[in-house]
Input
Amino acid sequence: MDNEAGLFALAGWNGLFSIFVTLGCVVVAWIVLQEINFDKILRQPRSPRARVLQLLLAVGLGHLVARFVLDYWSWVGTLKWLFRSG
Output
């Protein structure tokens, strides 16, 4: 029973870590998107619709980057089993 509680706690910490990594990547993507000159792409680059588009782009790009980081973290964590098998 104690081992099961430890697994649930580990899953909870893993989920919390994933949330923070994803939110951090979305914030970084938002900051990077602020440097793009949308004047040539959009008719009204400061309108609410343009801001929503930037937000959606930041969420999408941030999610992709976070997924890569979390997958890479998982892959590095499983490499230890390759070297402990012998």
User: Anything to note?
Assistant: The CA atoms of residues 19 and 66 lie 9 Å apart. The longest helix spans residues 48-84. The chain is about 80% helix and 0% strand. The chain has a mean pLDDT of 92.
